[in-house]
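--- STAGE predict ---
source: upstream dedup step, 1 unique chain passed
mode: sequence only
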Amino acid sequence: MAKKSKRGTGRPGSDRAERVAARKARQAQALAAPARPFAGLAAECDIVALRAFVASATASVTVHGEAGSNAVSLATILPGAVQALTRDLGGSVEGLVALQTEFEGSDIPGELAHALRWASRAEAGAPYEPRPEDTDVDGAEADGEADLAATFGADTTLDITLHDDFSWWFADSADISPDIAAMIEQASESILPTARIVGENLSGAPWWVDAGERAHVRWVRPEAEDDVMTALARLHAAGKLTLGEGSKFAGSFRTHGLLVPVFDLDNEMHHEEWTAPCARFEADLADALAQTGDLTGEQRRSRDGIRGRQVTLR
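--- STAGE serialize ---
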C-alpha cells in the first residue's frame, strides 16, 4: 500500500490550506497598506524612526477630538508587545500607545488613531480593545490618514524622551516581582546608546547610535524615495556622500515609504559633534535635490551601486 502523503490535501480545514490562505491574506494586506502611512504629519520621520529602530523612548502627545482626560504618550514598545495600556499614577491615569507592534489590519494610521483615543479614555488596567474591522476610530466610514491627523494633530512635533532601560514600563509605585524585574533587566541589555541629532536646518530625523565598534547615523528623509536616491547618486559621484572626516556612507534602507541613508561613524566622537557635519550634508543634499537634469553615466553607476546595497524594512 502506498504511503499516505504527509502534506495537506488542500481541502478547506487542512493545515496546508489554512497556511496558504493565511499567506495570501498577509500578501493582500501588505498590498493594501499605504506605502507611506504617516504622510502629511509633521512628525512623520520621527514616528517612522520610533517604529523602525529606536529601542526605548516615549513622547507625550495631546489627543484631539472626542478624547478623554487621561495623559497619553507614544512609546516604542510595551511589555508583551501589546498595542496600548493604561495605568494608575496615583490619582490620575496614563495611557501608553506602542508604535513597535503588529497592527491587525492594513490601516495603520486608523488603528493608531483608535489606540490613542482608547488610551485617553480607558480606566487604569483595562484590557486594550482593538478597533473593529472595516471601521474608523468612531465606527464611521473615513480615511485612516485623516483620522490620525485629526486625532494626533497634523502639525504636531514630538518631544521625545530616550530611556536607558525599560523601567518606565511600570509606574514608580508598582509592585514588581523578581521575575518581572529580571525580564526588564534582560530587555534593557539590548538598548544601545542613542540620541536624536537636533539642528535648526536639519530636515527629517537624523538618529545617532553607538553600536560598539562603530557608531551610525540613520537619517530618515522626508522627501520622495526616488528623489533622495537620485540626490545621493549625484553626491556620491561628486565625492560628497559623507558627513566628513571620521564618517563613511554605509548604504540605505527603505521603511514606511521613506528612504534612510546610513553613515558609519567614529564612535570616539560624541553625538553632538556630528550636528555641524550633518548641517553641511543637509546643504549639499538640498543642492542635489534641486538639480533637475538627467544623471550622467557616472551618476547612474553611483545610483545603481547605492541601490544594490539597499534593503527594505517593514
